[in-house]
Records
---
Amino acid sequence: MIQCLRLLNVKPLCGVSGCGESSEEESSPRDKLQRNSKGLADFCIKNIDQADFGRREIEVAQQEMPALMNLRKRAEEEKPLSGAKVVGCTHITAQTAVLIETLVALGAQCRWVACNIFSTQNAVAAAVVEGGVPVFAWKGESEDDFWWCIDRSVCADAWQPNMILDDGGDLTHWIYKKYPSLLKRIRGIVEESVTGVFRLYQLSKAGKLCVPAMNVNDSVTKQKFDNLYCCRESILDGLKRTTDVMFGGKQVLVCGYGEVGKGCCSALKALGAVVYVTEVDPICALQACMDGFRVLKLSEVIRQADMVITCTGNKNVVVREHLDRMKNGCIVCNMGHSNTEIDLVSLHTSELKWERVRPQVDHIIWPDGKRIVLLAEGRLLNLSCSTVPSFVLSITATTQALALIELFNAPEGRYKQDVYLLPKKMDEYVASLHLATFDAHLSELSDDQAKYLGISKNGPFKPSYYRSANTHTHTHTHTHTHTNAGLSNCF
Amino acid sequence: MIQCLRLLNVKPLCGVSGCGESSEEESSPRDKLQRNSKGLADFCIKNIDQADFGRREIEVAQQEMPALMNLRKRAEEEKPLSGAKVVGCTHITAQTAVLIETLVALGAQCRWVACNIFSTQNAVAAAVVEGGVPVFAWKGESEDDFWWCIDRSVCADAWQPNMILDDGGDLTHWIYKKYPSLLKRIRGIVEESVTGVFRLYQLSKAGKLCVPAMNVNDSVTKQKFDNLYCCRESILDGLKRTTDVMFGGKQVLVCGYGEVGKGCCSALKALGAVVYVTEVDPICALQACMDGFRVLKLSEVIRQADMVITCTGNKNVVVREHLDRMKNGCIVCNMGHSNTEIDLVSLHTSELKWERVRPQVDHIIWPDGKRIVLLAEGRLLNLSCSTVPSFVLSITATTQALALIELFNAPEGRYKQDVYLLPKKMDEYVASLHLATFDAHLSELSDDQAKYLGISKNGPFKPSYYRSANTHTHTHTHTHTHTNAGLSNCF
Amino acid sequence: MIQCLRLLNVKPLCGVSGCGESSEEESSPRDKLQRNSKGLADFCIKNIDQADFGRREIEVAQQEMPALMNLRKRAEEEKPLSGAKVVGCTHITAQTAVLIETLVALGAQCRWVACNIFSTQNAVAAAVVEGGVPVFAWKGESEDDFWWCIDRSVCADAWQPNMILDDGGDLTHWIYKKYPSLLKRIRGIVEESVTGVFRLYQLSKAGKLCVPAMNVNDSVTKQKFDNLYCCRESILDGLKRTTDVMFGGKQVLVCGYGEVGKGCCSALKALGAVVYVTEVDPICALQACMDGFRVLKLSEVIRQADMVITCTGNKNVVVREHLDRMKNGCIVCNMGHSNTEIDLVSLHTSELKWERVRPQVDHIIWPDGKRIVLLAEGRLLNLSCSTVPSFVLSITATTQALALIELFNAPEGRYKQDVYLLPKKMDEYVASLHLATFDAHLSELSDDQAKYLGISKNGPFKPSYYRSANTHTHTHTHTHTHTNAGLSNCF
Amino acid sequence: MIQCLRLLNVKPLCGVSGCGESSEEESSPRDKLQRNSKGLADFCIKNIDQADFGRREIEVAQQEMPALMNLRKRAEEEKPLSGAKVVGCTHITAQTAVLIETLVALGAQCRWVACNIFSTQNAVAAAVVEGGVPVFAWKGESEDDFWWCIDRSVCADAWQPNMILDDGGDLTHWIYKKYPSLLKRIRGIVEESVTGVFRLYQLSKAGKLCVPAMNVNDSVTKQKFDNLYCCRESILDGLKRTTDVMFGGKQVLVCGYGEVGKGCCSALKALGAVVYVTEVDPICALQACMDGFRVLKLSEVIRQADMVITCTGNKNVVVREHLDRMKNGCIVCNMGHSNTEIDLVSLHTSELKWERVRPQVDHIIWPDGKRIVLLAEGRLLNLSCSTVPSFVLSITATTQALALIELFNAPEGRYKQDVYLLPKKMDEYVASLHLATFDAHLSELSDDQAKYLGISKNGPFKPSYYRSANTHTHTHTHTHTHTNAGLSNCF
């Protein structure tokens, strides 16, 4: 996966979600004693008084996360997480709040902490605390705060976690290091991020993984939504919010035609841009051709581009030499991978002047007056300058909830101390829970048809090995190689 | 024309352009004496100190308005407006600043005033003043301020206008009423808005128009860009900035398939929405069908719509009965005409609760808890919640500049005391000035080919009557009636 | 109008409609006495025995011409053409057969003749005769036959026409020349073609038009369908049937971005081609840009084009110099205007070898072995190599039927001896009759809304001058000049 | 794979390729002694005299098969198939002729036979024979002829095959049964079809596969092209050639949203149809939603459909109950799997009347007069009624050629007696050979970038397990399950 969606809720530009939290005081939340309206004091957040505003944001998010709401309804009586004590470490946003409160509705006791020092929506944290879940997180933590919060989330009087929901692996890491004895009680780890999954595979390889773990990152549904569809939605949004640029007739150069590139190209073409593609992989290049895009080398079209968008997952795709040849006003941004795709170092030289014209928008000015418009300092555009639809996050969140339920309720022996992909059938179940949003009605196989196809009437409808590879994108091979190895164990 | 673009620069939601002007003081600009760096005091704006920030916004706008910049270059020596004294009344935004400064570059002396009490970008006004042009305008004028400013813009020591550039007709009205003697010196009026043009035709009809006037509103290029293309760009932007909604798979109901509706439908379909259309005109309905949209009555699809967008130019298109039947979470907004399309009165009743969840976003809550998401209180969505590309405004601004040049330089007798459309050839010239942006290269007719077609090599390439009617949209007939008066002979 | 749709039924390539008529005998139909099953001998066609096959083709066409079928139902009792004696001169195809038989169902007596010596579908002619309508036409008439047939269609014992339905003006011309006395009885002429309309305007200009005439060619609905939508459908079909070419990834050069060019570009882009446009008119060029096409000169992209399609209405658009620079295998065809757009003369030189590889497909071979693939010898591609949907023809045919009804029933004095466009309201009625095909449901204006818009609840919904100019295409100005004569007053 | 492209060259409708072979004599080719111009008599085809016409068709095909032509050039000196004796059993069409002659150019000796009794293009067979390759095939063989030809192709004086190129497995089967001793000399089998591959896996499972075999069917490139892109091209073509139907505004129901369904939906939507989808798999259904299609049950939309297209790979998807409820004129066709998807049996009942209105087009007439238009009797539409672009076939043919080269030249021990997929890198090589067609220019990784990604600069760029699963379609699991097992052996 190229796009690191776990960070996508940061909305520095328009700051809609920040409206309730503008007057950030100086004192550290750690120095402050607060209580929610029911007297709970076991939490540490910015300001419990922002709970009302946060509740409103959560309610807005609920509307676009019908699968979780659906899950709440279905499981109201059953309480499949009854007895589960979940410690969670994720971004703390309206959407994760919907997840947390769903877990609670399903019977779980939760404690929560942020996986990122900047991304916490303080008002949402307040609302979750007001709802009764201890949260340890605020926007703008220090490194020290970060680990202090994680520590506090794990340890509580008379409460020990038996499930871990992690995003990035820091919580898992801390428990391994600080509270190894807890691991005996842990019935499973659910991990969402590329990095966290990679760490788990390393543990497994080293024979040190002592808990079953579920790799949520590589589910089919998540892959398609986090990349192709999400980028189709967010590329236009990110460019508009930062530059108000008109798309019609503009010449756009998209570097990379994996899922992210496909999503960007499709949206830009649809709005009337003339799109060029660069590729290194001949198969992706052939797809780009057949989809109606000219495939050229960066150097061949760089002079005429109005926008350059990197989506390769590689490094130094756009370098100084290219930037030197771009025309005045060219917009440069990155939808791909961390902040390596554009060679920023080459732009921090004395002859170039940087001018911040808007938040997240820098003009880099050449000696001859030429200006290049750099967005988000080369970091992920949609992380920085657009929002990601709650619906997309809903798919990941639902997968996480189902993974927790599966691991918590699995009979002894179904899962060993290894990394697993969510069973195909659950992947299909997550998808089916989201169909109601579109008022989509599935057809059903007759007995006869199922027999003809040699599959069960209720799915899975595709073989299990489809899951990790339905896309043809730039992915680090190691995560998958290992994954597939694990598969042979589980099914 | 449905879309009233002259208001489109208001950006209350994201307020990017407002960054430099947040600390609005209490005292009225009328009570304040200010001077620009060259000592000029003949102006009245919020704060001259914001000039630097405004200049930056103007520079950003210049990049997307190449035709005006081009005009500056071409006319550097010629100065076709040398001797022109232009009093202008428009929105005061970065884009109009580019226009004003182009007129100055072409030789004109200008004085400027706002046509709207809310839309002035204070920092831009400051930059224009710093550049030497007297401006009388600030954001948040009172009614009294408004006319005071207009009055101040007209009168100056030893300066009397000989050209009027108006948007809405208020300036023209004021001069007619207060300074009729000035009209003798006025060589022409250039008017952009539907309303202003209508007023001019009424004057003409009544035999009271004593100055040649140019109707800029109905030029082909403007019509296409202000409606079809501009709405294609802004509908997605407006919806995203307010609601972060995902478009893929959503069922959207677009009321009206004129140019505005066509633009909206095209963009939404391209992003994966399922779009339904309502229409009253069978020809537009047939176009919608052929373009792949189901044409149904509002009542037939209202229950399943995720979004309802009005683009009819009519009133009470969406009424309480429809709103009662919408599903929870349905987004309702208006791209059409002022704020009449949604019956807002029916929503201000005691049993419905209004809740403002974000700027420009209200939840209207039914007794059973159903929430309808109303954007911009039913006013134009893109006026309130998105920006309009500078490029689109560039076309209008260029047309205005050319109209001024034409009227100012026309030989005696070419224009009488009537309302004119810009000659076809100038319309084509405006278009040609914008082709460079797209690096588009026009072909040229050979002598032989021109002869074959019976036209001049240099255009106009289409008959003049094409100009006002290349679209099949909802337009008030009166503006056109005059233009095509001859038609009444034929039928 | 560029596309001459009246010729489009010729299907020489696939010859589906020719299946029943393969064994063409030698003897002329003029030498043969035939009778239909009811004893009628007053006709002259190829072979009455083909009637069954022709009837099947007519039945197929009826399915796609619901408006005419609808008209039959509605008018069953009313018989608005009762007393009408229509002499018609059109292509004789399954679709015109549906028109003829509709006129009969509405009460008219008809006699029919072909407007083209090649386009008659013999079997269809037989079926129409078997149905009781005298037809004088066969495929492959000589010039002499052509006029003989026209003469026979006009004159019959005790039968004199009082209405003319013409396509091209030859019938009208013949009556003017040979039977001027008949004109006194004629209540109206309905003319479909550009050429025929032009002739009528000339007559009118010369003061010689002594009958009211209806110009069907310039109705809004016909313009949109015959050009934009029809070309969108037929460009792919014509290319596939002749060359089996794959569209995905191919570089296509479309010359001209009027309605025909727009239709071609839209379809080709949708199927994955990379499309370039050439234009002489800056307004059309700007539209092409905004729609996502690079606008370049022919010479700039000629080397890389896989296909070149002319849609300009001009002559010598593609000349030898361009052809010399095309790459091997480049496909060249014309969707525009007669056969002038490609300079064929320059290809008939001794150093180039022509090789017919399939019907309508020639390879032109350069001395170095390069092959250019020329389709339909530069004549209209969709005339020669594809079919036009019956639905499109249905719109024209319905308009013709309504024009006949209008002229036949109009009260004394409504129409003078001039050329008229179909009233706007009828244009809208034609459209509305076709909506049922799409199961489209029109909305209706409330009294209040109609009043607000200042129009009638039942239309017309747009001002009448919209009709002739809703497109921005390459059209010969003369046909319109008359219609909008009044315009010359304004400027 | 659903689409069985190996049959796609049959062109019964338009019969372009049949032009040279219309006068089919009565006598069996087996009774006739013919010689080519060089005296060769070791062949059995319809008529050697048609060679010239066939050669022209081959030359046309060559233009769209640049990869093979490229391969010829590159390998001119190297002759990598020198010493190879290939017996091939495929459809005999212009495109396979290009493949055969490429193998010869690479050094192979070939003998060829048809894999289907109907699909041979007689003229092409003649041209191949005239070129020196013995062919045993004609259009309209009997069952007995079929096996007689196969037998003749295998056995020749002093010639024994050492490579097999098969399509369907009949040739392989015959050698296994009749000439098992030959298998010792065979260095490899290359098999293209689903069926043939399935047979090979069965042999392998049973321990009876005694030769390395290459599964060409499941290469990434072939999958994408044969399904998604090919169906996008051919669905429109097939419908137009048979019914001349207009797509704009038509309501189309596509059953199944795998690769085939995706291709069909994309093309139809692009041409203005309103498309509905049915699905059983929630993941595919969710994709359809996000792509803008309503997902409904067949029974919910059957009444309003103008066309119903099956793409499921399942059986009895459209049954009598559905057909009874369709509206008059509804077109029904199959793009999916053999002829099982539409329940034809239910239509062969006494109360329904069948009427053949055109080749491949039947009207089925209900007692009340309703007509359903059934295409190709429910067999694959594009097999029967359209052509498949040579370019698509080029990809398969190139893959076959490379597979032959690989197996023939592989060092002892690289391939065991098992079924293999083409190495990923070769898949990429096939793709790269086709990029020239699009004038596409690949970018190259720098050493640094390759290191960063952990891959080789020259590919493969994706992990090998990507190959068989880049699509999410309805595929029989067995072919893949086994395939993947095989994979673990080879890489």
---
Amino acid sequence: MRNALLAAVAALSLAPAAQAADLAATTLALRDKALTDTTAWDVTESLTTEVGARPQGSPGMDRARDWGVAKLKALGFENVHVETFETESWLRGAESAEVVAPYPQKLQILGLGRSTPTPAGGIEAEIALFRTLDEMLAQPPGALKGKIAVVTQPMRRTQDIGGYAAAVRVRGAGGEAAKRGAIAYLARSASTDDTRLPHGGGGFRAGIPMAALSTPDAELLERMAARGKPVRIKLSLQSTFREKAPAYNVVGEIKGREKPEEVIVIGGHLDSWDAGTGAVDDAAGIGVTTAAAKLIAGLPQRPRRTIRVVMWGAEEQGGSGAAYAAAHRDEVANIVVAGESDLGAGEIFSAKLPKGSREHPAMKAFAAAVVPLKVLVSREPAEDGGADVDGLKDLGTPVVQLQQDAGRYFDLHHSADDTLDKIDPRELAQNVAVWTAFVYAVADSDIDFRKTASAAQ
Amino acid sequence: MRNALLAAVAALSLAPAAQAADLAATTLALRDKALTDTTAWDVTESLTTEVGARPQGSPGMDRARDWGVAKLKALGFENVHVETFETESWLRGAESAEVVAPYPQKLQILGLGRSTPTPAGGIEAEIALFRTLDEMLAQPPGALKGKIAVVTQPMRRTQDIGGYAAAVRVRGAGGEAAKRGAIAYLARSASTDDTRLPHGGGGFRAGIPMAALSTPDAELLERMAARGKPVRIKLSLQSTFREKAPAYNVVGEIKGREKPEEVIVIGGHLDSWDAGTGAVDDAAGIGVTTAAAKLIAGLPQRPRRTIRVVMWGAEEQGGSGAAYAAAHRDEVANIVVAGESDLGAGEIFSAKLPKGSREHPAMKAFAAAVVPLKVLVSREPAEDGGADVDGLKDLGTPVVQLQQDAGRYFDLHHSADDTLDKIDPRELAQNVAVWTAFVYAVADSDIDFRKTASAAQ
């Protein structure tokens, strides 16, 4: 405490140029420390090993909440607490699918979030297969009456989320199938891989059963359909759905030394889908942001502003970002910037900063630290800070977008393959270094992103 | 028929050197044709799409048998028939495994062939985890009493089957676990991949339940065990076992024009494990060898000797090779050479010929055709012609070993990932070209591998 006080007094007495130089030097030193620090890996390993799958509303999520509190306390965070809210919970039951004619074969599927369950004995019907979503959308009302609609449109691998954005339209089109009379909907997985593990995820409530097909099974159905005989599928999807189930955002802070009321909000999401262990989605995001805050806390003195790590509790099924924004509405003016790490564990290849901030000394210090890590500091301002900070953004909070390379992410995302072994510790450490540099440069400066944005109008 | 007769007369009238030149030229022409022919792909696509999984003793195998007969007839083979025998059949029922303490998580497993079923409600016990098989083997009798033995020894990727040979020892060690008192046995999958799909396969009857763990699950258990608390697993494996179930070898021939009684026996195995669609194991082998025979049948005249394609019906669970040898014991002296294609669909990188035959003009013609396809024509003689020709080999039949590159094979083998999309049509065609060149060079010459072997003593 005495050391921190002395250092604070020393910092206050520095001229602005010297302060900037100090900020830059410390940012570089933190970056280097982050590149060899194992906190992010340890946190990710711990969550995936000791908790594993943790869908919203499941016993796994309760364990994850307790894990989060214990982990933040053990790492020395302050004001560790749980913010409770309510949101939807869809939980998978027994599932199966098979072609019954003309070529009996089992299929590998995963029910989609918000799917209606089938009757206990399942349903059986002929399929109507479309190779693109647009083909299905071109069907008139009633055209799919009594059929199981199947869309096999594949996903393109891209570095950003462009490929996923297109694939997610396919996953979410159950309602369009229902409108045309379909009694169930099967979508090719939003996957860039060729394994026989389906990739699930959220759908929209459409009143019909909906599931994702593994990539090889989607291609198998295409080959069967091409032979011209009617293809019949038997499908059984059991699930439970609650409109309102208890949910949790877990929070910890590193209090600022000068302006503790000014807060930088970072984090990842604690919940996951159930097929894998939620390693890249999103134990890694939890690990990266927790490690960044922890590294900064290890400096001889705290930065000026408070760093708050939030483990959002219902990103996959939705609601944790909105709940967080609602609970912190009165505090928003003091939230300096917010950002979520939620696109896996690949390297950060681009940083989009809040509008107009690129030439500020604090952001110059950030750039100097991360350009050698092959980060492109974009001229485009950040527009998407992550699903869980959208609510804050809508209330006027500046956001930052530290874009991860998603080239491999959708090989794993929402599938049983989302496991720890897929994470490269070196790539994970690069993430920590970039987040640490950004958070520190903001936390120990007076940069005001609302002002930089206004000035840039 | 008239054309064939005229050509035969013409061939008989050629001097030996001219005959050899003709053989070499036709071998080259066949090779080139094979490289663009789609028969192997079409056959492989057909079997995996229209039949899919086909374990010995299952309805899928019955469909595969009927498919084989129809396919050989459609492709113009002669003497198409089924040779029936009896062998073991182990069929999977419902299976599940989960860690119940200290960190509840579901595990991905596949019961191993010949596993004893658990009671209907499953069994629950503490695990004893070993990172190498030798560690488990070093345990004294009784040391594993009441425990579920787990061996997590990983598999090395190799071009040949060296990596698999070591991994298969781990898969087959259930009896060693039982001897030491274990009540069940879990082995890390014999897999070179990191997907969460377990790789099954045959075990030995050990009187205890036995299953393969997916690679990520084996590593998860290692991490849990390293934390020091007892790890408890609940395991349920249902299955049915018959000592004797009907089994089928499906056969078709291209009759030789001069010495139809002299036979070249080639083929793949028709049965598969049940998790995938048996694409690389072994629809590809069926496709490659059927295509080779079919291409040769398309020449203006038949070769001198008969080419026989056998689709062996119980390679995975054992018995089809032995049954074939037993049924053809009296014919063995007339079987010129035998070989099976059963290591996937990767390129052939090495050809091991029957002993002493490398300098024979027929084998020179073969080498001239395949060296440009990057095939190493080995100085080592063939020792392993494939599991289904071991029985013939034991009766004195020369064998050939056209070694496929197995570098990617064990990413897929015996797992749900064994699907058509994993096959590269160009690599498959290289296989067909090499088999076609070998089979034709033998079938249209008078090479006698028993004589070359004696001369080489």
---
Amino acid sequence: MNSTCYQFELDLKHKKERIESHLKMRLEYADWPPQLRAAMQYSVLAGGKRLRPFLLLSVCEILGTDIACALDAACAVEFIHTFSLIHDDLPALDNDDYRRGVPTNHRVFGDALAILSGDALLAEAFVCLTYQSQLPLTVQLELVRVLALATGAHGMTAGQVLDIANIGTCSESQLLRLHQLKTGALIEAAAHMGALIGGASPSLVNAVRVYAQQLGLAFQIVDDVLDVESTQEEMGKTAGRDKLKGKTTYVDLFGVQGAHRQAEQCIKQACESLSLLGDRAVPLLVLAQSVLDRRR
Amino acid sequence: MNSTCYQFELDLKHKKERIESHLKMRLEYADWPPQLRAAMQYSVLAGGKRLRPFLLLSVCEILGTDIACALDAACAVEFIHTFSLIHDDLPALDNDDYRRGVPTNHRVFGDALAILSGDALLAEAFVCLTYQSQLPLTVQLELVRVLALATGAHGMTAGQVLDIANIGTCSESQLLRLHQLKTGALIEAAAHMGALIGGASPSLVNAVRVYAQQLGLAFQIVDDVLDVESTQEEMGKTAGRDKLKGKTTYVDLFGVQGAHRQAEQCIKQACESLSLLGDRAVPLLVLAQSVLDRRR
């Protein structure tokens, strides 16, 4: 495959359709309390880029594995991502009113149901991981371990704790650690899980993880730039809030141009890490470029 | 083994020590943000009956398996239980100030950290389940499945959703479903997991699950009675709150004496379900009796 024949937008569209229909299916249990199911569906099916499940499926596919084998893992990762958004938006945390262009979960369902629907999505992610009986047992268990580590105190939740403490001055290394945990851990886990399902060798698993770490960092830096530059309408969430809350961002540390140069540097490193994949890496290289292009 | 030689209090003391030292060990990661680790440790190590992990270890042991094989599963169940208490106590849910005789997590660490430490415990439970490499892979995966189902929208979290909607009149069958989900699902999962680790036959797994369902129900009914009768000091949490909140309880439906008779009936059924275990069932029979004795 080379970059001239790979159609990113078409691939994204197809994979998003597969992901969204699978997400929908995994949220349709008649025996769940209706209000809980509605709150879970509301946030999971509110759109979004589906970056993490798309990444997981793409890694799996370039390793020659049918993405049908990876849909439940992709779904699990998106459930974890959505749970983190619901809890992060709560009045006790970031107190955001809009997300993905619509009112946040607690604004529609109240704080109690927002907390509980986040909890339920977290647990349901691990239920999803047990639906993959076509995968080797060792891989199934490794997926549980990678996702659980990325989710809790070793990963994303630790990043959220650092984020709520990020009031005032934050050094570059502190900000890097915050984002590696809060955003990077789950993006890395998505790529890692795709590689495990695709049966990647340890060196390939490692290459894909390095790619995802840098991709995640670039994604966050671009997010900081967009937060400063965008209007609420463009972002689909309340814009400029980081500034209002006194949170240190990459723009504070490096300015808009400097932050963008850093993002470009991350994407360069991400792409270089995939050299051993040769042409097979094209979809991941194009995905990396698209993260930078979010700026325009 | 017969009931004259089994020393329940001594067994409980020994197992509690093993459980608590394991819980402590699993919460000591130097790289976790200190305030997150402190909030997790605060609630997990605040004492408590350790009913669920004790049940898990007891079931495992009467099947002839060394409880050392089951400590991580026991720890996982207790992490899930503690996460549910932390979130349940939040102002947006039950708004409780005391739990296990000390201020609730959010009263000490604030709502944000209480939400996040609950999330982290939920995720960490699944990390724990991947530390059990001495168990067959199929058992390890089945443990993930049983625990995830008991935790989320198929189990405990669904019960919490029904509980926050339990304002006004609630029928006996609605109350039964609420408690089967909110309290019963995790107690049943604990026994189920112990049986899986102990290598139980399907019929034995089933017997142990029926026992735990009835045990859980009795536990809840006794809790309702205690909530009416006890002072805050005896309960270690704010007493009489169910009444204040207008929640329907078993005492509302059957009166104190009627509720106690129901609890006795549940314990009778629990014990009968274990007939195929013969004398090996003694520790579980004594445990069941102890749930009734909480009343005095």
